[in-house]
Amino acid sequence: MGNQKLYKGSLQTIILKLLETNDKMYGYEITQKVKELTKGELKITEGALYPALHKLEADGLLDVEVAKVGNRLRKYYKLTESGTKETANKLDEMQEFLRTMQQLVNPKLSLE
Amino acid sequence: MGNQKLYKGSLQTIILKLLETNDKMYGYEITQKVKELTKGELKITEGALYPALHKLEADGLLDVEVAKVGNRLRKYYKLTESGTKETANKLDEMQEFLRTMQQLVNPKLSLE
DNA sequence: TTCTTATACATTAGATTCTTATGTATTGTT
DNA sequence: AACAATACATAAGAATCTAATGTATAAGAA
Questions:
Q1: Name one Pfam family in it (chains A, B) (predicted).
Q2: Which of A17, A25, B106, B108 is the one with CA 20 to 30 A from A94?
Q3: Chain B residue closest to A3 (CA)?
């Protein structure tokens, strides 16, 4: 597993992107999906995830809907209208960041 | 200027990469070079840069050499042997991170 | 000549974001 | 019966940054 600290700052964007693609997801599902998509390279910890979800909700980017499955609860999160807009912004910023970093660390590959 | 917080965690790698390419550089020069290379997208602040340089030196990855230019001093930093190895590691980790993030936020572009 | 900007180092307070540890409870597997 | 997985959550502390401040020299503009 690579350098986890590089992912610092990108958690919100990852969550928003997943919700854009999958419509609605619950917390534990997000951790599993990220592990699967990144083949174990990135593991979202609960201590990072839940506060991040709560903040996105408090900022009005996510709506929550509590569901009961068997006897256990799940909190399904979904993008609000404002969350959809913010997702587009954050994805643009992420692409610019990725281009910039690629150019910095490997100028040869970015001649296109 | 994009989302500065995405760069959190990548400063060490950036410094090491610049020193790999340019052999030796001083602090202020690094800030200017990064601004130039990223067309203003990334601005390294002194409060981030100097502690980072001191840490890399304390960790034995950089050697420092003080030079006097006119009446002003410059501290030239240079990779040690161990610093050269660590640079290769960190660049590998960065490439893996960039691939992973690209795949997460834009799966379409990563079909290759 | 005086004022401002650039060069060049540095530290500190505070914010943000994470990791690690801990806690509670249900459900599935051995 | 015990353990792993599912599902939520918080809290202490670490790491890394931003913004502000400080010192000093050099260069350029007014």
A1: PadR
A2: A25
A3: B93
Distance in Å from C7's C1' to A34's CA comes to 46
Domains along chain B with CATH numbers: 8-102 (1.10.10.10)
- Evaluate if the CB of B47 falls below 7 Å from strand D: yes
CA-to-C1' distance for A94 and D24, Å?
40
Determine the 3-state secondary structure of B79 from DSSP: strand
Closest nucleotide (CA of A52 to C1')? C17
pLDDT at B44 over 60: yes
Closest by CA position to A79, among listed A28, A13, A33:
A13
The tokens describing B18, both together, are 């610049």
- B37–A contact, CB cutoff 8 A: yes
Q: What is the mean pLDDT of residues A30-46?
A: 96
Nearest to B78 by CA among B69, B67, B89: B67
Please, which pLDDT band fits residue B99 given cuts at 50, 70 and 90?
Answer: very high
3-state secondary structure of B101: helix
